[in-house]
Amino acid sequence: MATTRYDVVVIGGGVLGTAVAERLARTSASVCLLEAEGDVGEHASKGNAGVAVSYYGGPGTLETELINASNPLWEELCERLDVPYRRIGGLMVALSEREAERLEHTRAEAAACGARVRILSAGEVREAEPLVSPDAVAGLSLPDEGVIDPMRLTAAFASLAAANGAVIRLRERVEAIEHEDDGTSTVITDAGRHRARFVVNAAGVGAGAVSRMAGGEPLVTWPRKGQYVVVDRAFAGALRQIVFCTHLPDTKGINVVPTTHGSALLGPTATDVTDPDDRATDAETIARVVAEAARLVPAVAEAYAIKTFAANRPAGDEAHRLRVDAHVPNLVHVTDRSAGVSISPAAAQYILDLLQAAGLDAVERPGAHTALPRIPRLRTAPEPERLTEVDPLYGQVVCACEHVSAAEIDAALSAPVPATSIDGVRKRTGAGYGRCQGSLCLAGISFLTAMATGCGPDTVRQTVRGTVGS
């Protein structure tokens, strides 16, 4: 196989890998991103609560520095990337005096991290969020918490990277990494050979395997499964902000999180597993998720559950690792256990700085694209009836639950990194997210996807892996 050459090869198409590729693509560096799946954002980046946090871990850590640097950027960044974001704030609720004592510890830690935070009385808690349990004795306000669409964010990072010349190679699994005498490395996949001056390891759960292939430092990773319940907007529309349970020393627990689509997520759990493809849910765990969420917000118990799902985030021997490898000078790791979305903008800049310090001759490229074209959304347009003047396809509503038009689906299927499956369309547009979960719109999505991909409607993939939904 012929060998292609790049300045940087990024391994992993999650939110951190695509963010790094996007930032590098705005420089003079040549960039290639390799992703084993048939789409970006197929693992932890599509299986998280979509919270862009202002506080997560302890003070003095790199993760906290990157959260602090990223948090003020969200409005401007999401406007440029055409990604939904709402800074709605968060409320941590104490349901006992013991939990109230824990709130003071969390308040002190959050303040030491630089986050805006304030203890609330029981009355202030109910005033801030009327749906909170009447058993609440105190609360903690985190006004800079926000909700984001992590799937749209990941796809947007990838599309802007591609628009700026980055090569996005999907369905390429890394099988070996060889080091050359001139200090470069050859990344060997099941479809090609890619020689690079630097390799960025953003492989999530697979980051440990990539480090071993490269002869890098020990990096132990494993999948940590979280199960979620999605409830529809009939309940979620009344929520004013994110409702967190009181953090305990060993867990951050089950939360109630409004989404940018109008639904709400309950969860997640945290169970270490061995199979990174284990995305099964079970009735006992789901019942526990609902019960724990109902302790915080009793109305959850009566809410209409749209679906349940599970995803694996990359747990590891270090909560976050963003540094040049201790043994391989042209290998850079970028991993984070739970705050990948929240650190992604600043982490991308941090990795660029590391690469430049290590010898990457990359300068800002004049004329690089800094934004994606904004696609009007039927559901949020102030005058939706006027959109047919922009494109007649806005007059064809494909997903009635989420008010997604054929024009929006067409845009997703023709993006720089396009959707190629029904699930890919869902990630980029929200079509199929609603109460019917695609029962009414599946035929329309399949037809439009078939037209864009040149295959028959009966062979359109449900997911990038095949016909079985994930």
Q: List the uncertain runs.
A: none
Overall mean pLDDT:
95
Number of helices: 13
Oligomer: single chain
Tell me the layout of helices and strands:
Blueprint: E1 3-11, H1 15-25, E2 31-35, E3 51-52, H2 62-70, H3 74-81, E4 85-86, E5 90-94, H4 97-112, E6 118-121, H5 122-128, E7 138-142, E8 146-148, H6 150-163, E9 167-170, E10 174-179, E11 185-189, E12 193-201, H7 207-213, E13 221-231, H8 233-236, E14 242-245, E15 255-258, E16 264-267, E17 271-272, H9 283-296, E18 305-316, E19 320-324, E20 331-336, H10 340-357, E21 397-399, E22 404-405, H11 406-413, H12 422-429, H13 442-453
Parallel strand pairs: 1-2, 1-12, 2-9, 5-14, 12-20
Antiparallel strand pairs: 3-8, 4-8, 5-7, 6-7, 10-11, 11-12, 13-16, 13-17, 13-18, 15-16, 19-20, 21-22
Helix pairs in contact: 1-6, 1-10, 2-10, 11-12, 11-13
Please characterize this protein's 3D structure.
With 470 residues, this protein is α+β, with helices and mostly antiparallel strands. 29% of the residues lie in helices and 24% in strands. Strands 1, 2, 9, 10, 11, 12, 19 and 20 form an eight-stranded mixed beta sheet that branches. Strands 13, 15, 16, 17 and 18 form a five-stranded antiparallel beta sheet that branches. A hairpin with a 6-residue loop joins β19 (320-324) and β20.
